[in-house]
Please model this.
Amino acid sequence: MSNTEISNIDGTWWQSGTVYQVYPRSFRDSNGDGIGDLGGLLEKIDYLHWLGVDAVWLSPVYRSPQHDNGYDISDYQDIDPTFGTLAQLDEVIETLRERGMRLIMDLVVNHTSTEHAWFTESRSSRQSAKRDWYIWRSPREGFTAGEPGAEPTNWESFFSRPAWTLDEATGEYYLHLFAPEQPDLNWENPEVRQAVYSMMNWWLDRGVGGFRMDVINLISKVYPFGDGPPLADTGRGDGREWYQHGPRLHEFLREMQDEVFAGRDAGLVRVGETPDVTVDQARELSDPGQRMLDMVFQFEHVSLDREPDDWKRPVPMDREAIYRNLADWQSGLAERGWNSLYWTNHDQPRTVSRFGDDSPQHWEQSAKTLATVLYLMKGTAFVYQGDEIGMVNMSFAGMDDFVDVSAIEYIRAGLARGRDPLELVSDLSRTSRDNARTPMQWTSEPTAGFTSGTPWFAVNASATWLSVQAQRDDPQSVLSHVRAVIAARRQLKALAEGDFVELSTGDARVVAYDRDDAVNRVRVVANLSSDSVAVDRALVEPGVDPGMAGVEALSVGETSAGLIGPWASRVWTTDV
Model:
């Protein structure tokens, strides 16, 4: 190993690491029932090893009624038969370990399914021993249970319904910040927390390498509850003041550290999904000295092309603002904390269709340059399945094409308010989570090599020309480029540990930064537009450093004296 390379075996492997997210329902089907499964993941582990990733983040495969595609869990310690068996999950863990990779499980503990045994017992009576495991409230004073407006607060859920549902048998309402089938756990109850910690320890004992913690900054609520300011579209209230980043969040996360992670392998990773987190909050949450999380998922850059109060309604893209936001997070977490680097996931549209240009002229270069710009920043890279080949958004013809619960509820609520159906389809075509959930495109076959049966969700028509098969042996493909970026992250200390230094370009369409570790410097310059742009000639002319040859291969597109082409990017090294 040269002095420019880094080790990937210590407790901070994620500093140079890349995590690949698998959405199992859409990744690969091994038994022909049309639904992706653990057998399909096992078939593709060698592909992930070839790609060079360090860990696999697996979206939920626990037992679930599948009201929210597995994020409504009815048994945390078993595998849903849709996806396979616990023995197969153990095989996944071991097969990854043999190839030097880890499995990161999705941890969904803000809420469970209404079919979880805990909730079944909790709703059995007001005197149940587990009644206080969930958040129950009587109707609003002066109202009878079930009347309009009788909900304990006016909050709207994330899925376009009231956040309270009446349990008619007991006459009280339970809180659900998401679907009615996803009741919120009461983290104020120490028995709940201990049950969660016991479950987490059970998984770590099986060899899991850590957790991605779903909406973890919602677990601490502010009591007593109150009505939130009315939202423009529905009149229901925005309750975030009472449930985001509550007063006991840090206490709960430190308790989790003590009860679950303390004394274990230093390489275990704790990734927190934290909606609306600020830079200051993220810095504290991911500061190693605070003993809470290793990194967080922030949502600022994926909110800048959305209406502030309606994340399914798009606004014009401002790539300068998005890059500016990413750069601000780089500087904000420069001294303490750690960044996660992602363009998309199972909750977001496809990267190249959203942030790039998916036209035939610019699709390939914009997909490559977006990968370069983000993944060479400081932080842990997260690649969502299909992004390594530049998968694009789906073409939706009508309202019936959407299958995601949040899209269906959004359509229902929009129609009830008199919104134009064509407008709803247009908005959701750009913003729906369904864009990320079409089957993975392995081949150009009618079912994209995803299944031998009928896929649970329509295959994107782009599979005829956009697939792993079409790109794997092409050294100039998007797949080959992303693989090279992943390798560079692992090999170069400047990319793992170096400072992020933003450079002025004189044109907002062109971004530039250095990654500087006091020995070597990696420079990145990119045009985030579909136009050629004039820039300072020195900015796009590489230096020479034979000791780090090969990085220049990451460059994309045409640059000439003082001009950088559409979606072109240059990467090179210099001595400090």
